[in-house]
Amino acid sequence: MREALQFLKDRGVPENVIRHSLVVAKYAKKFAIALLDKGIDVDVDKVEIGALLHDIGRSQTHSIKHGIAGAEILRDSKFKDYARFAETHIGAGISKDEATKLGLGEKDLVPRTLEEKIVAYIDDRVMGEKFVSEKEALARFKSELGDTPAYHRIESLFKEMRDLYGREWSDC
């Protein structure tokens, strides 16, 4: 964890993004442990590091392309195994068709592994440095995205995580 945090600092990630990433890592780790306690096989350490590194691309851009930029940074580093966390964390991922239209390349950017899905889910629930309810997060995404496939993927991811945990997960 310390090494990944230092890597963010060395790459010039803004302090507010580092604080956000620390909050995402904290809650993603707690959620992963909660799933582990329910007998669900999840790599807690991978979730924590993936969550910490997910926004590293914000050292270069704050546009939607930060996921791709972050994956490139990670692939060229000792953290190459975490590149997909950067690529797939936006919303509930971006389909190949949408990625192509957005100029992100012809690549499926939807999280596949449970660990990638946890990071996307928790990142969607952390606004700045505040962890919010699913209802609040979904309202924000509905307002920003409207009734789009991207919004429905987020809804679906939230349902998948609820189904795994047995209800909405909250640290409280």
Describe this structure in words.
By secondary structure, the chain is mainly alpha-helical. 61% of the residues lie in helices and 2% in strands. It has one domain: Hypothetical protein af1432 (Orthogonal Bundle). It has a two-stranded antiparallel sheet. Helix 2 (15-37) runs antiparallel to helix 3 (44-53), helix 3 crosses helix 7 (114-125) and helix 8 (134-145) packs antiparallel against helix 9.
Summarize the entry for a quick read.
This protein is mainly α and 172 residues long. Helix content is 61%, strand content 2%.
Q: What's the CATH first level?
A: Mainly Alpha
Provide the β-strand percentage band.
Answer: under 5%
Distance between the termini: 24 Å
Low-confidence stretches: none
Assign an overall shape.
Answer: globular
In N-to-C order, the SSE pattern is HHHHHHHEEHH
- How many DSSP-defined strands? 2
Under CATH, the homologous superfamily reads: Hypothetical protein af1432
Tell me the helix content. Answer: 55-70%
List keywords for this structure.
globular, 9 helices, 2% strand, mainly alpha, 2 strands, Hypothetical protein af1432, 172 residues, two-stranded antiparallel ribbon
Record the SSE blueprint:
Blueprint (H helix, E strand, L loop, with lengths): L1 H9 L4 H23 L6 H10 L12 H10 L7 H6 L7 H6 L12 H12 E2 L2 E2 L2 H12 L3 H17 L7
Antiparallel strand pairs: 1-2
Helix pairs in contact: 2-3, 2-7, 3-7, 7-9, 8-9
